[in-house]
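quick one, 397 residues, struct below
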Amino acid sequence: MNRLLALLFIAIIPLSVLSKKKPKSKGYEFKMLFEVPTTPVKNQYRTGTCWSFSGLAFFETELLRMGKGEYDLAEMFIVRQAYIEKAQHFVRFHGKTNFGNGGIIHDVLYNIKNYGLMPESAYPGLEYDEPKHVHAEMDALLSSYVNTVIQNKNKKLSPVWLNGFEGILDAYLGNAPEEFEVEGKTYTPKSFADNLGINVDDYVILGSYTHHPFYESFVIEIPDNWLRGSIYNLPLEDMTDIVNNAIKNGYSVGWGADVSEKGFSWKNGVAIVPDDEKPELDNLEQGKWEALDDKEKQELLYKFENPIKEKIITQDLRQKQFDNYLTTDDHGMLLTGIAEDQNGNIYYKVKNSWSESGNDYKGFFFASKAFFELKTINVWVHKDALSAGIKAKLGIE
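---
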């Protein structure tokens, strides 16, 4: 067929046929129902310090709620103090406890109460010629150091071993100032925290598990809980209701959860629990998903082209996931809003600490109600966000 005939042939084809292509997916569309004002998204970068970033993002948001103004609090000051406490625990327990860069909200509350807070300007924690936080070398040195200490080569511990440990922290993060200025006033970390009006005893940590009685507290059994911190245990429905009511009434909610899931996509800004699991995903051996590279994961993942049906989450299902290490203490974040997609499904707007890049939501993503119910380790919130009935059941005044 010559070129002229080809053109004539195309000309007589109905336009409806030529334009009959697969309609472009709209993807997920979110409408905000409730939203809590918060501070700008930060970047933990190449560190395991999400617990500090999420904890201080929570308190920065609390300060906004309390009418105190916008603050940028120093995550690395909390990290430094936590590492010192953790090292002493590790040595006293002969190395039979967790040591590393991970942590949970209890670390933040403990260190604010005992050491106070600093603004980012007083302690940025970058003393090693990097523009952003990179802790692999420091973490390895600190771990090697405390493991050397517990080997007890001198047959007794040196009285200066902790000084050496702090020296590594000082070299990488910087010396923590005893005093600093904010708007012309001089503070210590303790007086700065007191001036902000933060009372850590006003905050409660909640979870939902069946291996402990409901409406009682227990020490949550996760590796990063080196402080042996307790949480209040509630039925799943109560925990979810607390979160919903808190956000609706202007309170943000701290969130510890597992985001190493097939239904979590940072690129798409969505976290879901698909009901129609793909067989090729089901057949992956435990641990193999984490071993796949990004390209391999994308080939297996849901395309997130449109909202899909999700699993119905029960108390029993979330417990089985926790008991079988399918839900682990993975990441700390902040819930700042409630939204719905174009089908009316409910999601939580989540403030992350992976910078403002990577997706279209500038450092936030949307976690479905099912994802929240299945993958939550714990949540934390001001006690005033709890109803009188829940407070009575938990014995909270």
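The CA atoms of residues 157 and 360 lie 53 Å apart.
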